[in-house]
Amino acid sequence: MAGFTLTTDQALESMPFCGLMGVEFTVVDAAEVRARLPWSPERCTIGGVMHGGALMALADGAGAVVAFLNLPDGGVGTTTVSSSTNFLRGVRDGHVEAISTPLHTGRTTIVVETTLVDAAGKQIAKVTQTQAVLRPS
Questions:
Q1: Is the N end or the C end of the chain the one with fewer CB atoms within 10 Å?
Q2: What angle do CA 38, 41, 44 make, to 5 degrees?
Q3: Tens digit of pLDDT for each residue in 72-114?
């Protein structure tokens, strides 16, 4: 393994879009990354439910960080090549927390599972994504 490390601030700085959305990284480790996104009206769809795109962006950001932290030797980054999301319930207040863990860390791909939970700890979505390992040109 390449042995990359990041602080919570570096994780956020590495993805400006997450900062724009209001994501906060709370745990940044190769075994688990946690990130939070507060509910707000600007992140909602009809009926005050947090928009699925905001939830998927949160999961993708947390998944990208855990994938980066598990890069194989010679890897310099990752990019999402597939993502599958199952939504289980809506979020109308509080926050959403993403908990990302690596399922497979190979030479060419890294597969990540992210569970999204609401402020009460209830599961609201499950995301599985595959990240391609990027190498220097």
A1: C
A2: 85
A3: 999 999 999 999 999 999 999 999 999 999 999 999 999 999 9
